[in-house]
Specification:
The structure holds two protein chains of two kinds.
Chain A lengths: L10 E6 L2 H7 L10 E5 L6 E5 L1 H5 L8 H5 L5 E4 L2 H15 L6 E3 L6 E6 L4 H4 L2 H14 L5 E5 L2 H10 L3 E3 L5 H5 L11 H10 L4 H5 L3 H8 L2 H10 L15 E11 L2 H21 L3 E11 L4 E6 L8 H14 L6 E11 L16 H15 L4 E6 L8 E4 L19 E15 L2 E7 L2 E16 L7 E11 L5 E9 L4 E8 L1
Parallel strand pairs in A: 2-4, 7-8
Antiparallel strand pairs in A: 1-6, 1-7, 2-3, 5-6, 9-12, 10-11, 10-12, 13-14, 15-16, 15-20, 16-17, 17-18, 18-19, 19-20
Helix pairs in contact in A: 1-4, 11-12, 13-14, 14-15
Chain B lengths: L2 H13 L17 E2 L4 H6 L4 E2 L3 E5 L6 H14 L4 E5 L6 H6 L7 E5 L3 H9 L1 H10 L8 H18 L4 E6 L4 H4 L4 H14 L2 E6 L8 E15 L3 E14 L13 E7 L1 H7 L1
Parallel strand pairs in B: 3-7, 3-8, 4-5, 4-6, 6-7
Antiparallel strand pairs in B: 1-2, 8-9, 9-10
Helix pairs in contact in B: 5-6, 7-9
Classes of the chains: A alpha+beta, B alpha/beta.
């Protein structure tokens, strides 16, 4: 085999420092320009565990107590959210998985880091520097500020990424010089060993690499060989890739309970953007979105969005979310907000020149949601007749353009009824066992012709029993105008009702 | 060129600055029409109801308005088009629609309701049962809520587009309320219907859209047909053309033309078959 054809290993380390702060600020662009510190621990012993660069410039330091932090003016303090961090980690992983499927986690402390095996990706993404820039851009779009280092050595990439900003490419063979200025703390040594090196005056990796190999091992044991190899950037590493699970989920915890819908939608819009971007990367669309809101007092409020066809239209999905939350507002202030989506294949519609015009599915969804907001949830849809002999039995189903129903062949116009809902009780004057006159509201009617009775009954075994006698009645008002209507004598309730008018 | 033509050109030229084409007839707009499914009505309307315009079907109770509208919607859904029924008084009967041949799967039914009454009903179901038993259930005393809902729903559907026909059912709305719908609303509906090629059919006790309607029909009951004195077989209705813009033919007669048609019961149709 030709030696040129053997691919040389290449690694890219993505390092997100101050991850607790990044996870909280990712979906809050309004706070990204302010100094923010994240507190951990139980009150009153809370301490600063992470901060953004604005807070760092103000003199904020890790481990400061809440009291010290509150003494600094203009600083915003947030509580650490493990759920937000888990959601942010999943998003970060999802983003970098676009560049390589082989990923190993290298997170340490309060940072989140992943090392990608990018061997052989040059043809896809260009030279390593270009790949690093593209990856950084993709992560910035998802709300992360990361440093990326590309190197042929795993540990060199990992340690350098933790200590630098921006993107760096370490040329092969120059690992030792690239790592020379890094603190010896990058090796993750125990306290005792750090003290030993401090006594020797060894503070950087370059100084450690310059020590003679044999003498170092003689004094500190075999583990010193590994430290020195790492400091030189020559230690080999067995890559152990993880398999990220694909799930479309975004989570945000508020520092104060949110009551206004606009604030929720502000966060929701950002979440939908992220979900759509992640789904689009896999050529998928959002099919079913669940908005879960944790309320004050521990209750959970949930809304479901079901677009007619899976969609990646941000504006449309946000409008659906807005209408759904407006239709089902949370009963209390919201403490945390989670959006989870099921992925579906993007809808494809075959249009035809001669096909009849139908409503556009996404626009129809919004229209239906608006109609439901106007008239009520269960009062918009397609009627479906129930399989029963009981009159006026139907149920409402969601309206969809493609739905099919059985249709009878009709050769001419039919008599139609206009229902009175709910049926109006009327006072009927019978004559010769037929209705002769009745009163509906303030109007009196004289029956000129009565056809019937049609007797029906059923469900005698249940509470929904009916036993009625129907009469088709031609009736005249006092002003001479006439109507045709359907009167029903309910034997079960012993009353007469006006059910409908013929029209 | 004949002397009459030359004279006409001369007059038009003289008046051109004030009245352009003063003596030339305005170009006639011929609209597409869609069949109503009732032969007699189609003959009267020279093809059917106009597409992309407002048609009004007005008449008292039991005058065949709903049967005519259902027959029209049945024809539109049979062409695999999508229709909507905006029901201001929740009077639509799905069984009648199915019997008329309407494909219910292609019909969007919007049932307006008195929201304050509905909330009360939701709050105490017992009290509703009590009301219906005690005979207090009457047509809503607050028609504006329902009317407002119906107009807003119609507006939304017209703006959304894609509906071949929308029926705005104001059949049980009192004329004094219907007449108070602003003309601007009808004008907006007319523009939207024209843009989306939708036939907007307005059912009512009286015509409300006035000049915005391309067609106005007046319905009236004629007689009922019974068999053996115990079974109602059908009705005969009269339909009268009150107003028709864009008619392909000149309307010379002073009295609007009328036609009669019959609606039969389902069992009667089965018997005939």
């Amino acid at each position: 085999m030709n030696s040129d054809s053997i691919m040389k290993a290449l690694y890219a380390c993505v390092h997100a420092a101050e991850f607790p702060a990044q996870a909280l600020l990712r979906l809050r662009p309004d706070m990204q320009g302010e100094p923010v510190a994240v507190l951990e621990g139980r009150a009153p012993q809370e301490f600063v565990c992470a901060m953004n660069r604005h807070a760092l410039r103000r003199g904020m330091a890790l481990g400061m107590t809440r009291l010290d932090a509150e003494a600094m003016s203009g600083l915003r303090l947030l509580a650490r959210s493990i759920e937000s961090e888990a959601a942010a980690r999943a998003v970060l992983l999802e983003c970098i998985a676009r560049f390589s499927p082989r990923i190993e986690e290298a997170s340490h402390g309060k940072s989140c880091a992943f090392v990608l095996d990018i061997t052989g990706t040059e043809r896809l993404f260009g030279p390593p520097a270009q790949l690093a820039e593209r990856m950084r851009g993709a992560l910035a779009a998802a709300g992360f500020r990361v440093s990326i280092v590309v190197s042929a050595n795993y540990d060199a990439a990992r340690m350098k990424a933790a200590a630098t900003r921006g993107t760096t490419v370490i040329a092969e063979g120059e690992e030792s010089s690239a790592l020379a200025k890094l603190s010896i703390a990058s090796l993750g040594l125990a306290e005792e060993q750090r003290e030993t090196f401090a006594l020797w005056g060894i503070r950087t990796l370059g100084e450690l690499a310059a020590l003679p190999d044999v003498e170092l091992i003689t004094r500190l044991g075999q583990q010193a060989r590994g430290w020195r190899e790492r400091a030189c950037g020559v230690q080999s590493h067995m890559f152990q890739p993880i398999e990220p699970e694909f799930s479309l989920k975004e989570f945000c915890e508020f520092e104060e309970p949110v009551e206004q819908m606009d604030s929720l939608l502000f966060i929701g819009a950002r979440m939908i953007d992220c979900l759509v971007a992640r789904a689009t990367d896999r050529a998928l669309a959002l099919a079913l979105i669940t908005a879960k809101m944790k309320l004050e007092g521990g209750r959970v409020h949930q809304c479901l969005l079901r677009p007619a066809v899976p969609s990646t239209d941000r504006k449309f999905l946000l409008k659906l979310l807005q209408l759904e939350i407006a239709a089902h507002p949370p009963p209390a202030a919201v403490v945390s907000f989670e959006l989870a989506a099921e992925a579906g294949k993007s809808g494809t519609v075959q249009l035809g020149l001669f096909a009849p015009q139908t409503p556009e599915p996404s626009r129809l969804d919004v229209t239906l949601a608006r109609l439901k907001a106007i008239v009520g949830e269960d009062r918009v849809g397609s009627p479906v007749l129930e399989d029963t002999h009981r009159a006026a039995s139907f149920r409402m189903e969601g309206f969809a353009v493609g739905s099919k129903a059985l249709v009878d062949n009709v050769d001419g116009p039919r008599m139609a009824l206009r229902r009175v809902r709910p049926p109006a009780p009327v006072r009927v004057v019978p004559r010769a066992s037929k209705p002769a006159a009745f009163r509906y509201g303030d109007t009196g009617f004289v029956v000129t012709a009565a056809y019937g009775p049609w007797r029906t009954s059923g469900c005698w075994w249940s509470a929904g029993e009916w036993d009625v006698e129907e009469w088709d009645v031609m009736a005249a008002r006092s002003d001479g105008s006439s109507v045709a209507c359907l009167l029903v004598c309910d034997h079960a309730r012993n009353e007469w009702r006006l059910e409908a008018f013929y029209d | 060129m004949s002397s009459a033509t030359a004279l006409r050109h001369q007059i038009e030229h003289a008046l051109e600055s004030r009245f352009p084409a003063a003596l030339s007839p305005a170009p006639r707009t011929i609209r597409n029409v869609a069949t109503t499914g009732i032969e007699e009505a189609d003959r009267l309307l020279e093809g059917g109801l106009p597409v992309g315009a407002i048609s009004e079907i007005a008449g008292p109770d039991s005058s065949g308005r709903t049967s005519l509208a259902l027959a029209f919607v049945a024809q539109r859904t049979a062409e695999e088009r999508v229709c909507a029924w905006v029901d201001a008084n929740d009077a639509f009967d799905p069984e009648s629609a199915a019997a008329s041949g309407v494909n219910l799967g292609r019909l969007l039914w919007v049932r307006c309701q008195d929201l304050s009454a509905a909330q009360q009903a939701g709050a105490s179901e017992k009290s509703v049962a009590k009301k219906s038993v005690s005979g207090e259930a009457k047509p809503s005393t607050r028609p504006w809520t329902r009317l407002d809902q119906a107009l807003r729903a119609t507006d939304l559907l017209l703006q959304a587009g894609g509906f071949a026909s929308i029926v705005l059912d104001l059949g049980d709305t009192a004329p004094e309320h219907g007449n108070r719908i602003p003309l601007a609303t009808w004008f907006r509906f007319r523009q939207a219907a024209d843009r989306t090629r939708c036939s907007l059919v307005v059912l009512g006790k009286a015509p409300y859209a006035q000049s915005s309607a391309a067609l106005a029909l007046e319905c009236a009951p004629l007689r009922a047909e019974a068999a053996g004195g115990t079974v109602l077989r059908g009705f005969t209705y009269e339909v009268r053309r009150g107003r028709q813009r864009f008619s392909p033919f000149a309307q010379g007669a002073r009295k609007p033309p009328a036609s009669t048609w019959s609606a039969t019961s389902s069992w009667e149709a089965e018997k005939r078959a």
